[in-house]
Amino acid sequence: MRSLTTISIILASCEVDCTDQQNSTYEPPAIWEKLPEVGPVEHMEPKRPGMNRAAVPRGYFDKRTSEDCSFPLDVLILQDATDSFSDNIESMKNTQLSLLTQGILAEHPDSRFGVVSFKDKPVYPLGNRDDYCQRFDASLSTNVDDVIAAYGNIVSYGGADAPENQFGALFAALQSDTPGWSKDPVATKLVVISTDAGPHYAGDSHTEDMGMRPFGGVFQEGNAAEQCLQEYYPSPEQVKNLIASTGAYVASLVYDGDWNNGWPSKSWIKFNQYIDQKDAFVAPQAPDSSDFWSRLAAIIATIEDIECIHETTPAPTTTPATTTPPATLPPATTAGECACPCEDCTCCPEVIIELQHKPSKLHLDIENAPVA
Predict the structure, then answer these.
(1) SS3 for 138?
(2) Of 136, 203, 332, 354, which residue is 20 to 30 A from 237 by alpha carbon distance?
(3) What does the domain layout of the chain look like in residue ranges?
(4) Alpha carbon 320 to its chain's center
(5) 21 φ/ψ angles, rounded to the nearest 5 degrees
(6) Strand partners, 76
(7) pTM to 2 decimals?
(8) Cβ 76 vs Cβ 192: under 8 Å
(9) What does pLDDT average to in each consecutive run of 10 residues of the chain (372 residues)?
(10) Any idea which fold 68-307 has?
(11) Helix count (H) and strand count (E) of the chain?
(12) Is residue 165 a contact partner of residue 47, using CB atoms and an 8 Å limit?
């Protein structure tokens, strides 16, 4: 929910359209101050589902070749449905969903799409009485019309305080059977968070005030509403481990009026580094999400760079010109000399020389030699 440091919080006892409000000064919990110091991620290995990355055999994370880089994507959008996102939902329904589904299917046939909306806990001051933690609006499907129709049923309201239940919605989305994630190991999971707020998390300023028990680390499929009221939010560490265990990519498209210094943008940039993803997985979006597809397309291109081998034509090689050195000729000989380095010249029988000048060395009987 969009907010300045001082925000107006709707009382949980009010209906959605009530006018009885209470002003409260609220400092958003600075998640980037709670996380360990990490820097930008320069290198990422391809992600694969359900594997302990430290225990996988060598070669498991090898990149896909050009022939199978058109892998299908399971794209699940986690849509902020709080009061400030009405324009965004209309834009998604009217234009952006059609653009993104057409664009993805053109490069990644058989991709599927789904939607989970989130608000916050229906407990003051976290949320309004009619809020919900998360809701499965459309399971993953190749039927784009189902996703567009689901957006028509999302009503933006509530949210109360600034942070929302993105972390809880992530657990529900990745652990529940309802989205229907593909079992095909070739398919790649992509969760796209669309929001203008940072996340609530275990250890933020409201934890001790709510009287809730810590999040147990497991989304309770058949007890989700009660869990929403009884357990607090997941910790960043729990979410990081969840993402690693499922092999999902998590993209964050965030509206923030002050991208360089704002609380929402800093929250997601820091968390993205914490889960060891490249900076490109967090991007700003327009106030009405009118650039949603263009931003997401750049993120998918980053996934392709991580997952695939991009073959390039090698530059032509040139061989430097060489000059054949001239043949080495034996030195010229004169009468009475050898042409070879041996002392007695018998190593060079083909060379005609005058032996009579060296009788002492060859011990020839020159006096008795026949005359030609």
Answers:
(1) strand
(2) 136
(3) 68-307
(4) 43
(5) -125, 160
(6) 114, 191
(7) 0.75
(8) yes
(9) 34 32 51 80 78 47 76 97 90 95 96 97 89 97 94 87 93 97 93 96 74 93 94 95 96 96 94 96 97 98 91 62 59 54 52 46 48 53
(10) Rossmann fold (3.40.50)
(11) 10, 8
(12) no
